[in-house]
């Protein structure tokens, strides 16, 4: 791994990024979740957004300053990030197109700490609202011209219309922040919201670092449902001490919540130096108790007085960002742990590189690969992600019929009787091509006639005046040749006795119906002889 990182850092140096802090992957096990890590690297002079793959190699690095804060994949499966220049959030699709920019409405400016882009196209964001406040009417010695911070939460529809707005002025009081006591400062930024999420029931939860509080509000009425932590805590910690100056609240469902406890005042409860941790709570909203069900404290007791984050991964692991370790001469450490608290992956930045919040996703930019994307097609391309219309399929077997007379040669075989021929081949895109061919053989017909006449006759369109053998080819009812043959004898007498035969005697003469008849001209007769033979004769008289 160190060799890979060395090559990477040389590449960055050659690419003009040599001033950026270096990093090392110090732990990399097979138990980590295979996703890419997204974050904005703080420090100076550049603040690039970065994506690092599961092996620790930088696969995306862009300096978008002043854009890029809270660089992550949002709930709408698109990238989102804050622009410090325009004070708004940008949405980028997988083709690296900025498809939307989102700003607070009603005269407020969006804050950079957190932002939600929902699958239905709605957006949730918040703003700090600084207002002059006569604190001398609130506390003795208060500043009559104090500037007090308020918090505005807005939900926008896809057209950026405000459909929900919540104001802290209606619910919080400056004295909720005990750290500002006696509240006589000229500037009282007492809330400092830094994270927001949609809870399992659709209502909103948000983190107020200045108040050491997680607050849940009704997404319709705006009423406070509960306050967890801080001076207005509704819950009793039954196996833990209170978190302080926390970041990155996440709803895990069923009243379970994961947060990053910066622990700025943890020493007051632990008796040790301050340290930061990831901690998961289960809230009982009937008994109003808070039970710690999981936590992770780094073996090195890492402490980040500001920034940091935590994310529960799909395989149950937890990604923790110890993002500001400058006081320890360390830049930042991204640690992934399993449910047992074992470190399965760790990336460490040198001093000078701080990370507000790193998160891990199975996501990367879309690279169009045209081809056939239908798995039912013969030429399906598993690597294609854009269908180019080239798919082809196995067609139903083709049935054809060949009708020939007497014989036919098909696919190298000569057939003289009817048969079925099946041919299986492969078409141009690799599919089977089956052809069933029915071969039907019909046959030509033949006839032989003898005719005696003493004049010219018309036979099959021709006039015949002399004796001889004649032949004509016609078409029979099956569509094949019908060959007729005629043996013609032309005499010069009017009546020809056709019965002269020294070797046999006539028994009787019948017509075509088999009835005994007399000898007549121009009539077909069948002469039956005493030896059993039969001759067909015609006596023609002129």
Structure report:
This protein has 542 residues and is mainly β. It has three domains: 21-361, Methylamine Dehydrogenase, Chain H (7 Propeller), CATH 2.130.10.10; 389-442, no CATH class; 445-538, no CATH class. Helices cover 3% and strands 45% of the residues. The strands form twelve sheets. Strands 1-26-25-24-23 form a five-stranded antiparallel β-sheet, with no helix packed on it. Strands 9, 10, 11, 12 and 13 form a five-stranded mixed β-sheet that branches. A hairpin with a 4-residue loop joins strand 41 (524-529) and strand 42 (534-538). The longest helix has 13 residues, at 2-14. The model is unreliable at 1-19 and 493-500 (pLDDT under 50).
- N-end to C-end Cα span: 120 Å
The profile of the biggest β sheet is:
5 strands, antiparallel
Which fold does the CATH topology of the largest domain refer to? Methylamine Dehydrogenase, Chain H
Sequence stretches where pLDDT stays below 50 over 5 or more residues: 1-19, 493-500
Helix fraction?
Answer: under 10%
What's the helix count?
2
Name the average pLDDT. Answer: 88
Please give the CATH architecture of the largest domain.
7 Propeller
Number of domains: 3
Could you say which overall geometry the principal axes of the C-alpha atoms support? rod-shaped
CATH superfamily of the largest domain: YVTN repeat-like/Quinoprotein amine dehydrogenase
Going by helix content, strand content and strand pairing, the class is mainly beta
Number of strands: 42
Q: How would you write the strand order of the largest sheet?
A: 1-26-25-24-23
CATH C-level class of the largest domain: Mainly Beta
Kindly provide the radius of gyration, computed on alpha-carbon positions and rounded to a whole number of angstroms: 49 Å
What fraction strand? 35-45%
């Amino acid at each position: 791994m160190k060799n890979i990182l060395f090559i990477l850092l040389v590449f960055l140096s050659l690419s003009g990024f040599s001033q950026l802090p270096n990093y090392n992957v110090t732990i990399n096990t097979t138990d980590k979740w295979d996703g890419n890590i997204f974050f904005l690297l703080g420090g100076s002079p550049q603040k690039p957004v970065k994506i690092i793959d599961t092996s620790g190699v930088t696969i995306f690095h862009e300096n978008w300053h002043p854009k890029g804060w809270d660089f992550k994949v949002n709930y709408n499966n698109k990238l989102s990030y804050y622009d410090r220049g325009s004070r708004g959030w940008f949405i980028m699709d997988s083709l690296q197109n900025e498809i939307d920019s989102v700003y607070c409405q009603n005269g407020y400016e969006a804050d950079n700490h957190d932002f939600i882009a929902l699958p239905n196209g709605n957006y949730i964001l918040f703003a700090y609202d600084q207002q002059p406040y006569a604190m001398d009417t609130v506390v003795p010695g208060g500043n009559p011209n104090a500037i007090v911070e308020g918090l505005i939460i807005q939900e926008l529809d896809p057209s950026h219309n405000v459909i929900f707005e919540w104001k802290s002025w209606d619910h919080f009081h400056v004295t909720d922040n005990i750290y500002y006591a006696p509240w006589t400062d000229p500037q009282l930024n007492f809330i400092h919201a830094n994270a927001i999420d949609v809870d399992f029931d659709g209502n909103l939860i948000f983190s107020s670092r200045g108040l050491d509080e997680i607050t849940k509000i009704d997404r319709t009425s705006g009423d406070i449902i509960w306050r967890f932590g801080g001076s207005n805590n509704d819950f009793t910690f039954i196996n833990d001490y209170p978190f302080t100056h926390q970041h990155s609240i996440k709803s895990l469902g069923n009243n379970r919540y994961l947060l990053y406890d910066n622990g700025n005042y943890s020493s007051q409860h632990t008796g040790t130096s301050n340290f930061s941790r990831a901690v998961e709570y289960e809230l009982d909203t009937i008994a109003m108790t808070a039970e710690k069900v999981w936590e992770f404290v780094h073996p090195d007791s890492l402490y980040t007085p500001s920034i940091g984050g935590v994310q529960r991964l799909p395989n149950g692991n937890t990604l923790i960002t110890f993002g500001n370790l400058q006081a320890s001469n360390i830049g930042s450490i991204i640690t992934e742990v399993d449910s047992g608290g074992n470190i399965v992956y760790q990336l460490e930045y040198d001093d000078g590189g701080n990370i507000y919040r790193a998160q891990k996703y199975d996501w990367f930019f879309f690279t169009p690969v045209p081809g056939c994307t239908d798995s039912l097609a013969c030429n399906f391309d598993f690597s294609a992600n854009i269908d180019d219309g080239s798919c082809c399929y196995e067609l139903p077997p083709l049935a054809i019929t060949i009708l020939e007379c007497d014989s036919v040669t098909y696919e190298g075989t000569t057939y003289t009787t009817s048969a079925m021929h099946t041919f299986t081949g492969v078409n141009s895109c690799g599919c089977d091509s089956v052809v069933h061919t029915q071969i039907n053989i019909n046959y030509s017909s033949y006839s032989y006639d003898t005719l005696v006449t003493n004049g010219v006759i018309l036979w099959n369109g021709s006039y015949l005046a002399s004796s001889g053998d004649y032949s004509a080819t016609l078409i029979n009812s099956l569509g094949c040749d019908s060959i007729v043959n005629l043996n013609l004898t032309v005499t010069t007498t009017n009546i020809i006795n056709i019965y002269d035969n020294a070797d046999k005697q006539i028994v009787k003469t019948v017509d075509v119906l088999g009835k005994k008849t007399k000898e007549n001209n121009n009539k077909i007769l069948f002469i039956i002889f005493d030896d059993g033979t039969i001759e067909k004769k015609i006596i023609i008289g002129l």
